Amino acid sequence: MSKIYLIDVTNRDGVQTAKLGLSKLAKTMINMYLNEMGVYQSEFGFPTTRHESNYLRVNLKLAEMGVLHPIRLGGWIRATVEDVEQTFNLVPEIKDLSLSISTSSQMITGKFLGRKNEEDILMMAIEAIEAAKAHGAEKVGINAEDASRTDPDFLLRFASLGKEHGADRFRYCDTLGYDNPFTIYETCKMLAKETAMPIELHCHGDLGMAVANSVAGAMGVIDGGQDAYINTTINGVGERAGNADLVAVILALKKSKGLGNKYKFGVPIRLSKAWKMCKYASYTFSVPIPINQPGVGANAFAHASGIHADGVLKDPENYELYDLKELGRGEPELVETGREISSGEYSGINGFGHVMGKMAIEFANQEEAEKILELVRYANVLAQQPLVADELRFIAEYPDIVRDLLTLTPLNEPAHL
Asked: Which tens digits make up the pLDDT trace of 376-392?
């Protein structure tokens, strides 16, 4: 039976959200959390963007070390030979790439303004795939931007030619959230049957259906006999109205009527990691989790109605489809109510030692403590907010990795690594 895999795009599509962004340390921590949760792949950034280079190479080094394992790390680029060449110039170690190009008549006309036609789009995609494979890419996905508004015959031709020239997956992008669960199911079932290749679903929430469309599209792919790969973001962040929320997608596939027995994940999902991960993403993006967010919202397990409260006290399953502990919720949260000492960009060694000591982190000597403190200061400068405990532990455990991670290489300078 074909399976479902999750490819989270928080570190690519999520950071493209207007008014939002993440430090390179925060992006690395998100990769760590996604790995713990059982996500198949993180689309971890833009390998053609120079300021991403050290971050990307450091995370690939963490993967090589077995720290980021078994999660795969994939980059997103335009489907052009120039982008492929730039990618392997800046990040030669990368093995997973998604190559993206617009396919709808609206985009071809409205973006390329008559300079390209459908045949040009096909040729660009083919040349980019072949270039990526020639450079040693192990997994190459070919992405149809605005697939939901693309003529189905051209879409099928685009995907089939992609496979013929070496693409491993086809990404169906509902770029404007135009699809609905019925249309995306039928289209993706057809694509899976006709191309005989795995299909990715990349859905946006402009009409509020990103999660429903992702699930329905995956059902169509599975029913068409192929593996389905669903793109998600943590807390549903993303351009405009956002992307399909990671936790909501998982809950839907596990808990929705009749789905869990038929449409199964290809790797174990550790839903108990959800609460910590979502809280971290909310903090580092500075975007509160909506009160009614499935699973992790403040009201997800709150009951006020007398009938509901009575029923849930008698048996939680009366009014809850899943238990709060399944998502890692339920542990008490300790809040400082008196004196608080935090670690920031201007911290001294004594205050820093106090903070780390509270987390049972000890240093061999004063020199080691000062080395870690200096890295913490730089990380705070970049993040412009206090670091959380997991970030401090990561810095203390991998100081040499963090030094490279925090380094931005100026233009015309050799890469630090």
From this structure: 888 988 888 888 889 99
For residues 233 and 244, the answer to whether their CB atoms sit within 8 Å is: yes
Q: Distance between CA atoms of 188 and 179, rounded to whole angstroms? A: 11
| Nearest CA among 20, 51, 70, 76 for reference residue 281 | 20
Inter-CA distances, 296 with 114, 142, 330, Å? 47, 33, 11
Listed in sequence order, the residues at least 6 apart from 52 whose beta carbon sits closer than 8 Å to its beta carbon are 24, 45, 46
- pLDDT in the model for residue 223: 98
Q: Are strands 96-102 and 199-203 parallel, antiparallel or unpaired?
A: unpaired
Q: What is the pLDDT of residue 339?
A: 46
Segment 36-39 long-range contacts (CB within 8 Å, at least 24 positions apart): 36/270, 36/273, 36/277, 37/269, 37/270, 37/271, 37/273, 37/274, 37/277, 38/6, 38/265, 38/267, 38/268, 38/269, 38/270, 39/6, 39/7, 39/8, 39/71, 39/232, 39/246
- pLDDT of the residue at 159: 98
> Using CA atoms, how far apart are residues 197 and 160, in angstroms rounded to an integer?
9
In this prediction, residue 390 carries a pLDDT of 92
The answer to whether 202 and 8 are in contact (CB under 8 A) is no
% the chain with pLDDT above 70:
91
Closest CA to 231 of 241, 244, 220: 244
Which residues share a beta bridge with 99? 77, 142
Q: Up-side HSE of residue 172: CA atoms within 13 Å toward CB?
A: 39
Best mean pLDDT range from 14-28, 164-178, 384-398: 164-178
Asked whether the predicted pLDDT for residue 414 surpasses 60, the reply is no
Pull the structure tokens for residue 37.
């949760």
Measured at the alpha carbon of residue 411, what is the angle toward residues 410 and 413, in degrees to the nearest 5? 75
Entry pTM: 0.92
- With bands split at pLDDT 50, 70 and 90, how would you rate the model's confidence at 415? low
Q: Is the peptide bond before 332 cis (omega within 30 degrees of 0)?
A: no
